[in-house]
Amino acid sequence: MSADPPPYVPPPPSYSDVATTSTESYDGNEILSPTILVLYKQSIHAESPSSGPVLYQLNRGITGPTHATSEVEFSRVERTLKADTGTGEPVAIKSRVRHIYNIKYDKDAGPGRFGPQFFIRSVSRRTVGDLALRRSSRLFRGEKWKALPVHVDGTYGLASFQRDREAIFEVRHRKGQRYQWVEGAGSEGGSRSRSGSVGGGIGGDTGNTGANTGGNTGGKSGKGDGKGAIAVEDEGEDQHRLIVTASLKRETMDALVALWCCRIWEYEVRHNTEKIHEGMEGVRRKLRLANE
Questions:
Q1: What's the pTM?
Q2: For the chain, what is the domain count?
Q3: Is residue 194 assigned to a domain?
Q4: How far is CA 272 from the centre of its chain?
C-alpha cells in the first residue's frame, strides 16, 4: 500500500451534515460535503463501521466471489430530523430506505458484444441515469476507465453504451497506487460545488497531492481540462473505503457510490472466481490421489 490517505481540509462532516435533513422533500441538487465512506458487508457507512451512520445499503454482498449473482440492489438510507415544535431541539430521526439503483452483471455479455457486463440501472427518476465503466485507454503501468451513459433494452435488459456521450466520471489506476475518480467532461460542471471542494483536489494542497495519492489529483486532470479528482479509493485488509474529497450534488454522490460498488464487484468476480475454481479442482485432485 502506498502513502496514507491525504488529510481533509476541512475535516469530514458530522453525522448531521452527511445523513440527516430537516425536511421530507428530496433535492437531487442538494450539495453534500466531503466525507469518508466505508463498505462493510452489505452496508456503506460514514467514517467507520462501528460508529458511523449507514448511508447506503446492498441486498447482497459484493466483496466475495459472487459469479452466480446477476443483480444487487443499491439503496440510499434517508434520515429526516424531527424537531420539537416548541424548543426547536431535535427529538427523533426517521429513517427510510429508498431503492435507487440495481447493479447488474450480464453474464452473456462478452468481448464480441458492444456493451458492458457490469452496469448500474436506475430504478428512480431522481438519479443521473444508467451508467457503466468502459476501459478507454491503458496508461503507462496503469489503466483508465470512463463512466458513460448506457441504454438498457426494455425487453431483454441488455446494456449498450450510448454514442457520442461524454463521461460523467473518469477512473484512473496505476499499479501499486490507488484508484482515483475524476470529474468527467459530461458532468456539465455542475456535479460538484467549486467553492465547497477541498482545495480543488485531494488534501487541498495541489502542489503535493500527487505524491500522496500516486497521481495528478489536484486541480488538473492530466489533460489541462480543469477537472479535478473528486474521490480516491483506499483498501485495507478486508475493507474498502471511498474518500470523497469534493462537495457533490446528492444525485452525483449516489451515482459515484453505486459505480464504486459496481467496480468492486466486477473486480472480485474477475479476480477471485478463478481462485475458487482452482480451489475446487485442488480438492478433487486430492480426492483422486487418496483413492488411488
A1: 0.75
A2: 1
A3: yes
A4: 20
